[in-house]
């Protein structure tokens, strides 16, 4: 029988109505599953009351909070498609995504009223018909979320979507610089939830701390799995390392997920006398390889770090290290998730020998349906049921995977994927730039930061001028942190920039 993922909340509220579903440290609000489900039903009713029909898209430009969760599940119940939006993006970037998705409704936090006003002023460049603001006083032409939700009924809606019907479209940057919408259905999310539950140590009534923004699949999928397993989810509105230690202590947190940069920040504020971690069984960490030294440092604090490898295209799961193997195989991201198949292949498409580097392929019922409106990109990425990740790894005789390089020159800054082509396109828009290549350089603060290698048309150009030029055209985490001027950028016979040569030449630490 096909399932509607929105009804995960319905079933959990029926079984555990009084169990705490969500706690928000920012405002002290706690919601039981009964309360969260009721509000989700109101969201479903309110969305349908706007005249939306099955399959219509709803943009979510929201900080972490109950409003994101209840709207996401409510849209799912109503047969609508969520489009989580990265709130670090600027208006131009958001316009492309919102327009590409054809979102008819935008639900946004008051923090983003200014960028929403900019989008709204562009008229018919998007399909958005309804603007709904969470918190504060909405501008003319926008609705108050509390008023909009409060006027709706809380009866359980009839589920009209399941199976291959879309549940969300999550945009991820591509090597062309244009984001692609990853399509996940009720079925793919259902299987992602199953494989997370079958592989990770998520338990009924566990208390899970979510520090990552919910527009990332690495945050969204564990929250969905938490509802499925009957956990209590603490949602940090924004990450703060000192506050995170205090929440882990005061809320008796059992598990959490943080990117390596977050774990580094956490070490800087740790006080063993003040920060009790007795209830913390494990911390899952991904988005970038976790240094062995970091795993060992946390092990000395009696905190297990479980390295995970996943992708938006796989709805999160690919590989996960188990508790038993976390130290003995430190540096590995572990074996494939329970309902997941992983291969490492050479250029001929044959399985690599143990220790031989090759491309990671992933298969399973949780793999995306494809890229929204991009059948060409879909057919290039999914071949014979296998997702071609572009990541380079080794696999040993026992199935342990170790990531050794990342997707087509992508760099990761503070847990965010940054694709050089997008930055290069912006740089090439400067009248004094003749050619440009972007690579990642080490950053003690963010893991990696963008370095621009530029061939100038005019020798009067300065690094400061270029970095200022990028501001407002790219999200802050994508902006260039250093610039090198050269006479020529190395390219191969087909014109592709030889990024490996650039990385060998420029390997210094980024200025902070």
Structural class: alpha/beta
Give me the Rg, rounded.
23 Å
Helix percentage: 25-40%
Strand order of the largest sheet: 2-1-11-10-12-13-14-15-16
**Biggest sheet, open or closed, and with what strands and sense?**
9 strands, mixed
Q: What does the overall shape look like? A: globular
Number of strands: 27
User: Which residues form runs of ≥5 with pLDDT under 50?
Assistant: none
CATH class of the largest domain: Alpha Beta
**Count the helices. How many?**
15
Description:
This protein has 15 helices and 27 strands. Helix 1 packs antiparallel against helix 2, helix 4 crosses helix 5 and helix 9 crosses helix 10. It has 2 domains: 7-300, Rossmann fold; 410-505, GMP Synthetase, Chain A, domain 3. The strands form 6 sheets. Strands 2-1-11-10-12-13-14-15-16 form a 9-stranded mixed β-sheet, sandwiched between helices. The protein has 512 residues and is an alpha/beta fold.
């Amino acid at each position: 029988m096909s399932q509607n993922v929105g009804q995960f909340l319905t079933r959990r509220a029926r079984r555990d109505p009084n169990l705490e579903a969500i706690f928000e440290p920012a405002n002290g609000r706690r919601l039981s599953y009964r309360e969260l489900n009721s509000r989700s039903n109101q969201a479903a009713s309110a969305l349908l009351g706007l005249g939306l029909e099955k399959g219509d898209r709803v943009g979510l430009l929201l900080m972490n909070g109950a409003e994101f969760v209840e709207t996401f599940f409510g849209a799912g119940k109503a047969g609508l498609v969520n489009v989580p939006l990265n709130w670090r993006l600027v208006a131009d970037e958001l316009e492309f995504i919102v327009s590409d998705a054809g979102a008819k409704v935008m639900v946004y936090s008051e923090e983003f009223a200014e960028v929403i006003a900019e989008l709204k002023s562009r008229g018919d460049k998007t399909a958005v018909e309804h603007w709904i603001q969470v918190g504060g006083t909405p501008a003319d032409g926008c609705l108050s979320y509390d008023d909009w939700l409060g006027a709706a009924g809380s009866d359980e809606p009839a589920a009209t979507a399941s199976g291959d019907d879309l549940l969300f479209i999550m945009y991820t940057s591509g090597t062309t610089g244009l984001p692609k919408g990853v399509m996940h259905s009720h079925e793919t999310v259902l299987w992602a939830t199953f494989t997370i539950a079958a592989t990770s140590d998520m338990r009924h009534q566990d208390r899970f701390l979510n520090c990552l923004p919910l527009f990332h699949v690495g945050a969204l999928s564990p929250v969905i799995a938490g509802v499925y397993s009957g956990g209590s989810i603490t949602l940090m509105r924004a990450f703060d390392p000192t506050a995170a230690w205090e929440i882990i202590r005061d809320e008796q947190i059992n598990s959490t997920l943080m990117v390596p940069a977050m774990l580094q920040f956490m070490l800087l504020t740790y006080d063993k006398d003040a920060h009790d971690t007795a209830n913390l069984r494990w911390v899952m960490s991904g988005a970038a390889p976790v240094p062995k030294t970091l795993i060992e440092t946390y092990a000395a604090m009696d905190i297990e770090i479980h390295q995970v490898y996943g992708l938006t295209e796989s709805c999160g799961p690919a590989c996960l290290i188990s508790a038993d193997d976390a130290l003995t195989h430190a540096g590995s991201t572990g074996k494939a998730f329970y309902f997941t198949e992983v291969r490492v292949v050479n250029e001929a498409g044959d399985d690599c020998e143990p220790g031989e580097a090759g491309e990671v392929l992933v298969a399973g019922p949780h793999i995306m349906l494809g890229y929204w409106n991009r059948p060409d990109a879909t057919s290039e990425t999914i071949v014979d049921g296998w997702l071609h990740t572009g990541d380079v790894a080794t696999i040993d005789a026992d199935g342990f995977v170790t990531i050794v390089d990342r997707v087509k020159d992508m760099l990761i800054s503070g847990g965010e994927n940054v694709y050089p082509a997008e930055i290069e396109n912006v740089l090439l828009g400067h009248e004094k730039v003749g050619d440009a290549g972007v690579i990642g350089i080490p950053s003690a603060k963010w893991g990696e930061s963008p370095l621009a290698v530029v061939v100038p048309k005019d020798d009067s150009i300065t690094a400061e001028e270029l970095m200022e030029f990028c501001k407002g055209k790219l999200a802050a985490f994508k902006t260039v942190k250093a610039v090198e001027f050269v006479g020529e950028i190395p390219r191969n016979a087909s014109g592709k920039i030889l990024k490996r040569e650039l990385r060998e030449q420029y390997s210094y630490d980024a200025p902070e």
